[in-house]
Write a structure and sequence with these properties.
mainly beta, Lipocalin, 14% helix
């Protein structure tokens, strides 16, 4: 009986661990303008911009985080910018995180889940929300 309980416990832990890792990888935004790489650090998940369709302005200078409310961060290039922060896996989704929108300089609470192999990214502002669908890339 102890062996069966141990096997069930190992299976449950392994299955949960696999489910958490499904989010890890490179995801193309639904508008096709950028790819965000999601990774795990400690027990949380984060995402940074690793590709932009238009990474540079007309003078070939990298676009920067010009709308950031912290003026000292406005010189940061958008490439490499961490836009997803602090997600934890719970109830078959990634919760308690935030998403940063460099176009507006605003940060929103966010929930992420996988549906039909696509990543659903939902940002909230009050009772309103917007959901994007991202596609896994290689």
């Amino acid at each position: 009986m102890k062996k069966i309980i141990l096997i069930i416990a190992i299976f449950a832990f392994t299955n949960n661990s696999f489910a958490q890792q499904q989010i890890v990888g490179k995801w193309l935004a639904d508008d096709g303008e950028g790819i965000t790489e999601i990774y795990q650090q400690d027990n949380h998940f984060y995402g940074k911009i690793i590709w932009l369709k238009k990474p540079n302005d007309e003078k070939e200078k990298p676009f920067t985080d010009t709308e950031n409310p912290d003026k000292s961060k406005r010189i940061q290039p958008l490439l490499g910018l961490v836009i997803l922060k602090g997600f934890v896996y719970k109830n078959n989704q990634w919760e308690n995180g935030t998403i940063y929108d460099p176009e507006s300089g605003k940060t929103y609470t966010c929930t992420i889940w996988i549906s039909d192999g696509k990543l659903k990214v939902r940002g909230y502002w009050g009772i309103f929300y917007q959901t994007q669908t991202w596609t896994k890339t290689k």
